[in-house]
Amino acid sequence: MRPAPFDYVAATTVEQACAELGRDPGGTRVLAGGQSLMPRLVRRLDRPRCLIDITRIAELHELCATESDLRVGAAVTQRTVEMYHATPGFGVLAQALPRVGKVTTRNRGTICGSLANANPAAELGVCLQVLGGEINAISVRGLRRISAKDFFLAPRRTALDDDELLHTVRFNRPQVGTVGHFDKVTVRGAGDTPLLSAAVSARVGGDGATDVRIGVGGEGQQPVLAPAGITAALAGSLDDAAIDHASHSLTAQLEFSDDTRASADHRRRLAVRVVGRLLRRLREDLP
Amino acid sequence: MTRADELAIQLRVNGRTIRANVPARMTLVDFLRERLGLTGTHIGCGEGLCGACNVLLESRSTRACLMLAAQADNTNIVTVEGLSSPGEPSKVQDCLVRHHALQCGFCTPGFVILIEELLAEVDAGKRPTTAQVRAHLSSSVCRCTGYTPIIAAAEELVAERIAGIDSSNTTPSTEAAR
After folding, report:
1. How many CB pairs under 8 A join A and B?
2. What confidence category does residue A206 fall into, taking pLDDT thresholds of 50, 70 and 90?
3. Triad B94, B100, B102: Cα angle to 5°
4. Residues A36/A39/A44/A46 CA torsion (nearest 10 deg)
5. Which CATH number describes the domain made up of A7-53?
6. Where in chain A are the domains?
7. Residue B75 — φ and ψ, nearest 5°?
8. In the predicted model, what is the mean pLDDT of residues A39-60?
């Protein structure tokens, strides 16, 4: 047995989970699919005193698509959303999901768990930024809504407080006429943690591209949406000069860091290339 | 350890109902190997990277090293031992052998699980492309074969299963045709 000892509580209601979390917020971790948490426990990078299993809470299995959004409860696995009939309506999310981890980890890992663990290079965080949306966090103190753009504070750190449970995530449905593209770079192919993930989207019509969005995340830099000052200049025909200017000026603002797999500089160069390539792919979608 | 053997769990493993008391921190793979003696499920990296510990949980492949035995309470688990009769290789195992798709064999139980999951998806109506077969198998790591024979075996099995379904034109009755 490799994890250090802990208590295990299989909560059956959200109230019970919140009460347990409120008892010892610093020493308690929420366990859903465990595909991010368990590797940390077996390496003893984390030694919580208590785990709260939330997968037996019925209301956290909510998965529904409306005209305006896709709501995903905390216990819904990535694989379930990948196979969900309405997911193709959510552009970059539908493209990214089959590329998250491996089929075996998607069978257990949850959408909300990936967001809450906030690996900066994770595919789903970038998708949340580009689609926009909201996080519902719940605790004994009540329900709190956190906008997607305010959710990621730093690599592996979110706006969730220690006693809060990520209850549901809401992804906004892209407007009619929106196209998006997702891509990521890995060292060892499928299933490897990406060096960076990136996604772009825009509404395409007779007057060219409007509402251009770019999301990027990678080690050192939590998933962010490019500021309007950069993307506004892309509206229209998406010509090469505009794309080069946007990808360079966006990348200059990103704060990638070095790790054992790649340097910060390598990630910056990758970001320029990948964002540029995705925007050119977007240009091919113009009528 | 102060809190040993405090969680009572009940689960089905290879069709058999098991009741046990387990420590909270015991992983499923340790439970299967040490308590039930089902050593066909291997421990490679123990951190979810390699896939040697894949088992079917409710017909879906799962890393048994990234799951607590306590989380398996009230679930249905099938290990590689449950996919064939003793001394008699299953169709999948037989096909892997014919393709020389194993050398040391350490990763093979994980691949057998993945291929069974893939075949269950075919039964459920999916028609995976070559790229999708490869993506599915990318879940496990093999250090001997270079993957080519494993992919060839999986593709042959998928093609054979699809041909079988098309010729009979009836819905097969596997437990995974959910």
Report:
1. 92
2. confident
3. 90
4. 0
5. 3.30.43.10
6. 7-53, 60-172, 178-284
7. -115, 175
8. 97
Where does B7-83 sit in CATH, by number?
3.10.20.30
Complex prediction ipTM = 0.93
Please tell me the CATH superfamily of domain B91-168, with its number.
[2Fe-2S]-binding domain (1.10.150.120)
Contact between A102 and B117 using a beta-carbon 8 Å cutoff: no
Mean pLDDT confidence for B114-135: 96
More confident residue, B27 or A191: B27
pLDDT of residue A192: 84
| Residue ranges of domains in chain B | 7-83, 91-168
List b or e across B28-67, with b for residues whose CB sees 16 or more CB atoms inside 10 angstroms: bbbbbbeebebebbbbbebbbbbbbbbbbbebbbbbbbbb
Measured CB to CB, residues of chain A less than 8 Å from chain B are 1-8, 10, 31, 34-35, 38-39, 41-43, 51, 53, 55, 79, 98, 102-105, 107-108, 189-191
- Selecting from 3.30.70.20, 1.10.3210.10, 3.30.390.50, 3.40.50.2300, what CATH number does the domain A178-284 have? 3.30.390.50
A261 pLDDT above the threshold of 90 = yes
Residue of A nearest to B33 (CA): A1
Q: What are phi and psi of A222, to 5 degrees?
A: -65, 155
Q: Determine the pLDDT at residue B172.
A: 54
Residues A166/A152, Cβ–Cβ less than 8 Å: no
Domain A60-172: which CATH class? alpha beta
Q: Give contacts of A2 with chain B, Cβ < 8 Å.
A: 27, 46
Q: Do domains A7-53 and A178-284 have the same CATH topology?
A: no
**Are B66 and A108 inside 8 Å of each other by CB?**
yes
pLDDT value for A287: 87
Calculate the average pLDDT of chain B.
Answer: 93
pLDDT of residue A191: 77
Going by pLDDT thresholds of 50, 70 and 90, the confidence category of residue B168 is confident
**B152 Cα to chain A: minimum distance (Å):** 19
Question: How high is the pLDDT of residue A2?
Answer: 87
Specify the pLDDT at position B171.
Answer: 56
Quick one: how far is CA A186 from the chain centroid? 17
